[in-house]
Amino acid sequence: MTETSATARDAAPPRPLWQVLLIRPEMMTLILLLVGIFAGSQLSEFFLDTDYILKSFTLSAEFAMVALVLTLVIIAGEIDLSPAANMALSACLFAWVQAAGVPLPLAVLVGLGAGLAMGALNGALVIGLQIPSIIVTIGTLILYRGLAQIIAGDKSIRVPESFVGINDVMVAGIPLPVILFCLLALVLGLLLGTTIFGRQIYLVGTNEVAARHAGVRSARIRMILFLMMGLVSAVAGLMTASRLGSVRYDLGLGGELQMVLMAMLGGTYIFGGRGTILGTFLAAWLLVIVTTGMIVANVLPAWQLCVLGLLLIVSIIATNLIYSRTQR
Amino acid sequence: MTGWRSLLLRRETGIAVMIVLFCLAVGAVKPQFLTLNSLRIILLLTPLILIGAMGQMLVIVARHVDLSIGSILGLTAMVAGMMFRYAPEVPWPLAFPLAIGLGAVLGLVNGALVTLFRLPAIIVTLGTLSLYRGMTFIISDAKQIDRQYVPSALKAMSQTSPVFGIPWIIFIAFGVALLTWWFAMHTRIGRQVFALGSNPVAAPLRGINVTRVTLTVFAISGALSGLAGIMYASRWGFVNPSNTGNGFEFQVIAAVVIGGVSINGGVGTVPGVVLGVLLLGCVSAALPLLGIPGTTQSAIYGAVILIALVIDRMVRMQGRTRGTQRAGA
Amino acid sequence: MLRKSTLIGLTAGLAMLAGAAMAEPLKIVYIGKNTGNPYFDSITGGFEDACKSLGCEFEFVAPATAEATSQIPFIEAQIQRGVNVIGIAPNSPDALNEVLASAREKGILVLTVNGDITGSEQYRDATILPVNFDIVGRDQVELVGSLIGYEGEIAILSATTEAPDQNKWIVGMNETLKSDPKYAKMKLVATVYGDDQPEKSTTEMEALLANFPNLKGVIAPTTVGIAAAAQVVQSRGLAETVKVTGLGLPSEMRDFIKDGTVTAFQLWSPYNEGWLAVHFAKGVLDGSIKNEVGGTFEVPNLGTITINPNNSINTQAELTTFDAKNIDEFNF
Amino acid sequence: MDSGSNPVLLSARGIAKQFAGVEVLSDVSLDLRRGEIHALLGENGAGKSTFAKIIAGVHRPTRGTLVLNGQEVDIANPIVAQRLGITLIHQEPISFPDLSVAENLVLGRDAGAPLARVPWARMLAEARATMGLLGVSIDVTRPMRGLSIADQQMVEIARALASDSRLILMDEPTAPLTPKEVATLFTIARRLRDEGRTVIFISHRLEEVRALCDRVTIFRDGRKVATEPTAALADADIIRLMIGRPLKEYLHKTKTQVGDVALKVTGLTRPGLFRDISFQVRRGEVVGLAGLVGAGRTDVAQAIFGIAPAEQGSIEVAGRPVRIPDPAAAIALGLAFVPEDRAQAGIFRSLPVDQNITAAVPRRIAPVLFIRRAVERALAVEAVKRLRIRLATLRQPIGELSGGNQQKAILSRWLLTDPQVLILDEPTRGIDIGVKAEFYDRIGELAADGRAILLISSELPELLALCDRILVMSEGRLTAELPRAQATQEAIMQAAVPRLQGVAA
């Protein structure tokens, strides 16, 4: 008698394999990407040109790199809205100390160190004081950008010629920032998918309390992620400085929307526990394709704002639906 | 009276004391800061933020956040401005219901996305922040509404005064604050907002219609942003598709958080938020008087938000350790 | 024989190609600082009218924000579209260098219109500015002097602390005040910055009035600043005591002129910048104008224009002064 | 008092409820009369709470109808229930910590339009009056935050009182209460009955049921198995009906070889939660930890395991003094902890079963840097076989499994760490009886294996059957240590209930 009831309570049969493979957010991203490429080619005859698309991607490569790390942060159940401001502050500090006579390699270290310090402050407030990361990083977003403004005023600071031009370095015909992005995606993809650290990110994001009970050092993992976030933001800031040849406090202004958008479009679940680097990788290309397609077709930037906003909302709705369907 | 009352009082007194100390400190350096005139300047800096903060307070008390208010302000102000420009025959006061109504609709869209799809408000409103701003550009064809189109009577509301030399716009803002206080403390749905934020899981079990309450706070936030939109046109005399309302959300969230509204929901008072707005107003008015460049303002805002968060957290931690003591033992 | 006919054929072919190229209308694009900036409506009007009369294709694009890098994807896109001329109001004096260089490599004529990339002039072909910026400071001091009877305290309410044009003008104002005995009784008591935001400009203006009770005049050489300053003076009923002037848009200042808050202010014609830019670009590309310092050319309605050092071109010699008498003649 | 002839207030007809395709309540039909106190009895997960929640509008039945006063009603949500005069006192007090006690009292029954005015003065006066009736002195203007669990429960009860309901459902209301408060509660419940109202009383304490209730209905495995007047059933009958077999079958524990001290705690203190806790567990020994809800048992376990370390006191593992700042350190020392709240602290709902099983042994599945899927899978397969976990595939999210199988997976996670000391916190809560028996077998085996086991349980028969010794906690202190021979339900309850003999009658 207990046997039957036990069977009754066992769950429904597993989903068929094709569903497991196809009903995934990354699939949605891939389809959107293909649609985007097609739509772009219809909008403008100038669009389908590999060199041009690669060049356009270079302009977003810094944000895309940050978005990859942000994906890990979101999977771990946190969020960071401050990286764009972090980019500006670390780049401004770098340019400022460098202009004040500090040797270039040391100045680079100062920039990276500043990024790490900003990540550490975010982490300390979120993990140490247990304030929700969303509100902490809104606060630090304003603070970091404000500090950059204090340091640099609103003038641009030139960076030395030797530091300029990362986007002109070509490896096998591909701009270096794109290569770096792909490499970072590969490394983080392996980290997330095949290592214990990656596994524990999912555990923490799925159920932080259970993860701690299972011996996962959740505070340490989340702190490492915030530090990674700080570091990659600083790297992105310096890459932007190298690309532009100068630095101003408004560097990367509003970039947090794009970064969050890339992660969301890639199917990262806003409440944590799910998402993949592959998704964000595809989403970064999708976003570049969409914006580039609109710009080269001379679509009003107003429409771009609308499309970005709508994409963000639609992508989280879709992701939520997919996850709620596949998770009974 | 009780621990609860005194705690809240302490938070509000705390802000009030900070305001007084700050003003005295600035006054020591620049005596002209302690004049009626600078009070007028401070008051004139606050109405938009105060109106926005009342809506945002309710949203945050209900455990959400609305980042789109700046874009709602911009869009409603633009719609009102276009009415002034392209339909000058329409009586200008109709712009009030128009902007407030449109704001409410935009807020309802936020609320509907949050409740229907169970999405986090922060992401939804980050999306509509972008969406509404884009719509502002589109309907206006990216053209500014210049001063000459904004009715003088509307502009006069920021300058002429019914009594004491205080312009209408300030009365409106404080009237909104009073209404919000009444709404929050003395209506059923107002208390339900606090209940929902205090314990979202239990709220439906106690017969609280979560959807209705959530929609209401977002609609109020939107409607008040719409009112702020009209006030913007009154105060500055023009509406610009890109600048109007840009960054408004950060000022408002700063004021609300400083005013003691807990981001964990359930806690917040109108007097606290009013004081928070006034404190920000004092800082904004004092900076130029002291000759501190405006570029520092943003960093100060950020620092003040973080400090307020840390204080809030400390108070909470204390409250929790006290809470764990058993009454019986 | 065969060789000769081949050559002839080739030449003919080339000539046809050239002819075809000439028949293709010139593609001109103007990239503004950001959308929704009323100042650029007027410049764009000049571009449009000139392109219509000269048979060029014209597009106006602008990013949503005036952030330093926001124009870069737009420039890249225009290069990709194969435009012939890029006119741009740069958002940064140096962040655009790389992308402008690559545009010029592709043979695109790059003009900065209404604002220059000071210090990076080698990355553009020429700059089109409304007036010689050296005279702006002088003219503004003269204007405020005439309004306050050349006596008393004055202050400057500028845009941002680093705004290059404004700073150049402020240097000019200081030099004029110091060197010309005519202004000996005028004293510049403060220079403050409203960051081109109405809120900040207003608080700065209020602070000026509080800090300097004897203030007689305020120069605000920025469109946002002058409107904010005028509004403060208007709402406090100080129009008689404190004279506000500076650089403003007639469309934004009309009300203040009409109700007497502001007696006079100055500006130039943004429209003419666009008009001139198109004529200049077309002339340079078809070879009729040589882009050399000291060269001159004719532009309909504007007369003879000289190319100044640094390939800088001005649309007018003097600032236009707007007051109650002429304000209604201008609709930008 | 005889309520046998009273008219029927509410009658449930064929009520069934499914959650995610799993039927947790099948075809329950039951008549509730006016002026009776009706007990719902059953093991955890038998369906009694679900049934109560359906009546209170928290859940909607999948099938079946409810008839109130002869009229079919659709209790779609708690608001409707409230309007029909039905109030549920939840098992764990539900409160709005930031609202005042008075508001907590009226929330949910305050009628009127959304913009209707809140009558503060009247509300406060009524709240004071109601609290006075209960004999509780709580300032009604203070916020709920900071009230003890017992006080919160009293507010819950006061709320039901104030609501003027016809039908009041109490879901294990006495668990956190002191005997004096229990006595007050019983007095009130009887008065409500005498006024002609109906009270449903859910408990698993037979003494309380016997003292208070007119009739009992017994649930088992989602079905109603009996409804009888309380007097008509002997305790043994009730237990037999509840568990479906005589109690004897539980007694599995065979005598094992008791070895060295595996875990020893001395003077463990965490102010406000527990104080001066000292005990030891030897290898091969099963030590029970009994006490009322909120007595601090879980807090002690969490302190030992490093989740919320104690502020004072020392811990020795295998004879060596150790410091355990976090669970990772505890695991390294050979400790394992199966938490009480499976959903909150145990499972990773959306992750596959195999990942759930291997969550605590990262080193074993990834000896160098990368996870070896084959190893992980092999470990999981073995665990599934060993504990007979029922599942479709290892890639299935664990949330799709039944509660018992989830619990087995959690246990297997800890067995993979090869623990020397195993702390089990209510391991059989909410799982089927058949699976429960398996668990008991497993616990016996583990002890026989030479592991030390600390078993926290609220089910006294379970403790009595399995443990070599039983520790009892009350209000944060150890109040008794009973060897197996001396342990009886009465002895345990006496030590568990503060300052009193037995349960209020």
- Portion of residues within helices of chain D: 25-40%
Which overall shape of chain D is indicated by the principal axes computed on the Cα atoms?
Answer: globular
**Number of H/I helices of chain D:** 18
Could you estimate the helical fraction of the residues of chain C in percent? Answer: 40-55%
Tell me which protein chains meet in the greatest interface and how many residues each side has: A-D, 38 and 53 residues
**Overall geometry of chain C:** elongated
Can you tell me the CATH superfamily of the largest domain in chain D? P-loop containing nucleotide triphosphate hydrolases
CATH class label of the largest domain in chain D? Alpha Beta
Separation of the first and last Cα atoms of chain D: 15 Å
Can you count the beta strands of chain D?
Answer: 20
Instruction: Give average pLDDT of chain D, whole number.
Output: 84
Using only C-alpha atoms, the radius of gyration of chain C works out to: 23 Å
Q: Which regions of chain D have little confidence, pLDDT < 50, spanning 5+ residues? A: 500-505
Q: Provide the number of structural domains of chain C.
A: 2
User: Can you summarize the main beta sheet of chain D?
Assistant: 6 strands, mixed
Number of helices, counting only DSSP H or I runs of 4 residues or more of chain C: 10
- CATH hierarchy class name of the largest domain in chain C: Alpha Beta
Overall domain count of chain D: 3
End-to-end separation of chain C in angstroms reads 65 Å
